[in-house]
Amino acid sequence: xxxxxxxxxxxxxxxxxxxxxxxxxxxxxxxxxxxxxxxxxxxxxxxxxxxxxxxxxxxxxxxxxxxxxxxxxxxxxxxxxxxxxxxxxxxxxxxxxxxxxxxxxxxxxxxxxxxxxxxxxxxxxxxxxx
Length: 130
Hints:
The protein is an alpha+beta fold.
């Protein structure tokens, strides 16, 4: 009986230890406000050889369009929007069917949301915060 109690106490101790250690983990994730304005940075990332040619994003709740040859990566300056208007779209061309493109939204320098990867020679990505 003493062995059984020892096993129970050891199990409870282990369970409490795991919960304590998990609760003490360092959580530096940025907080995404549910209402109000958000200051964010947009990033578009393509694989090697990709050329981003068109970018549309929201800044101060107004659409901004950029066209050109931006290469494989592009990052905006920090923009402010109402949270639900934090949106970015981009198009690009790639050298092969394995070329990829994705969009990210960053708050306080940390990625808070990332689009699924687009793959192919013609690439399109879109992402919104909510």
